[in-house]
Amino acid sequence: MGTDTGIDVEKARADTPGCARVAHLNNAGAALPPAPVIEAVAEHFALETTIGGYEAAARNAEAVEHFYGAVAGLIGARPDEIAYVENATRAWDMAFYAIPFAEGDRILTTTNEYSSNAIAYQQIAAAKGARVEVIPDDANGTLALDALEAELAKGGVRLVSLNHIPTYNGLVNPAAEVGRLCREHGVLYLLDACQSVGHLAVDVAEIGCDMLSATGRKYLRGPRGTGFLYVRREIARTLEPPFLDLTAAEWKAPDGYEIRGDARRFETWERYVAGQIGLGAAADYASALGIDAIEQRVTALAATLRRMLAERPGVTVRDRGERPSGIVTFTVDGHPPAAIQAAAQERDVNVSVAVPRAHGYDPHGLDAAVRASVHYYNNEDDLERLLAALP
């Protein structure tokens, strides 16, 4: 299978209680958490119920603070460049809406942009007079770098914004190459890494992004209701968050305030404390396994699944791009994806339905496809169980 990366898969499965119940191939939706994450969340919540929420946070202050270093270490950042946010959407929003757009500013994005982000572009375009422009794909279906470079050279670009891994088509966008071009032209770069942190080796210095948003619940295997935002130290002070509270800023009574200088200016005081501790534990778990090893195993498993599907009569793999991810999309002739999902679930196999037309700027996208997203704790039996569920 070509998936021997040094990861002890049996131990990873033993650490994952859900593996005893389901073949979980919906990691791009929400992955199964490992025991250290489950325990970290449960222990803090139990403490809250016995001594009080404020008191539990004070007692576990070191574990709360540990989150920043754990996440920073995972993505090659510094702890003061990390903010804890309740989900990836809010993290992305806090970064995007902090940018001082003006009339005529250009926002460049990709054909496969996530719809939530696209809605935000349109809102700013209407409110500020900015323009949203979509860079075409190359022959492989990936962002065309030569087209991006040509648009950057024209000037007037305030922001390049894209997702590292789209939600529905199996590709990995060339994030580092985009970063190089943005640096050359002095343009802000926002990367939606919702599907890539915990899935690929993500190094913000290598990628060259100014801001990066991510979630806990997907490939990082953290709790739902958690996420984080990376903001490069050198630009954090140039961005004013769309709303502030007493964590993000200090009130200078009676009529002034001073915003924090680090990434925590994007935080709010009230938060899911057990989730923050659990997300730190998830980052530790991924780092201990080795993110390079995780990427190799996930990529190899996905390649094996694509091959198995392609050999099946009536099945069409719908992925595109030169660099494939752990997300595999496919259709089965004569069978709606929702029916495939239901049939798989009857066999305790979890997949999801992707709706390409609901995302991205490509009007020729599929109405729907089955999305199977693998992780390192999946094994050959999980893949075989999915194939057995197909008509």
Automatic annotation (TrEMBL):
<dbReference type="InterPro" id="IPR015424">
    <property type="entry name" value="PyrdxlP-dep_Trfase"/>
</dbReference>
<keyword id="KW-0663">Pyridoxal phosphate</keyword>
<keyword id="KW-0032">Aminotransferase</keyword>
<dbReference type="GO" id="GO:0008483">
    <property type="term" value="F:transaminase activity"/>
</dbReference>
<dbReference type="InterPro" id="IPR015422">
    <property type="entry name" value="PyrdxlP-dep_Trfase_small"/>
</dbReference>
<comment type="similarity">
    <text>Belongs to the class-V pyridoxal-phosphate-dependent aminotransferase family.</text>
</comment>
<keyword id="KW-0808">Transferase</keyword>
<dbReference type="Pfam" id="PF00266">
    <property type="entry name" value="Aminotran_5"/>
</dbReference>
<dbReference type="InterPro" id="IPR015421">
    <property type="entry name" value="PyrdxlP-dep_Trfase_major"/>
</dbReference>
<protein>
    <submittedName>
        <fullName>Aminotransferase class V-fold PLP-dependent enzyme</fullName>
    </submittedName>
</protein>
<dbReference type="InterPro" id="IPR000192">
    <property type="entry name" value="Aminotrans_V_dom"/>
</dbReference>
<feature type="domain" description="Aminotransferase class V">
    <location>
        <begin position="25"/>
        <end position="386"/>
    </location>
</feature>
<dbReference type="InterPro" id="IPR020578">
    <property type="entry name" value="Aminotrans_V_PyrdxlP_BS"/>
</dbReference>
